[in-house]
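Tutorial, part two.
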Amino acid sequence: MKESAVNANISSANHIVKNTRPLWIFLLAALAALSLLFVWSGAGRMMRMQTQTANRAEFAQLKTQDETRIVIEVTETMAETMSNGRIRGKLLERQDDTHYLRTANPADVAWDNDTRLVMGKADDIHPDAILHVTGKVAADHCVQASQIVILTGYVQVK
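Running the prediction step on this input gives:
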């Protein structure tokens, strides 16, 4: 009698395991799909971050509200306060990761409290500073900066 009760318990346990297998397979498949989605979205963000800076021809063709990335050498700053203002500069053209060429093309940048400053602070924005600016083109062809990366000391300008 004991043996038949044990066999019944084993049979019942096997039945429970067999019934939960589809649930485990579904959960593992869902986890794999979510992992793939996470990696895919991260790769998309990384590709957007690697967008090349606009050269002088591309910069001249930008329209209002276009997103752009430019590198400038600051010629003049007009600070309304310590945390916002306008920057005038000359557009630089990238040769490689650490070398840029001067151009005669002017570029104006507006920035404010919402602008993220990377690798520096507001005091680092001065004449002769090198800035990588990300932002949208305004109606007056000024770039409204969402992010400014201070490149002074990290790149060379020829």
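Strands lie at 67-81, 84-94, 99-111, 116-118, 130-137, 143-150, 156-157. In part three we will examine how such features are distributed along the chain.
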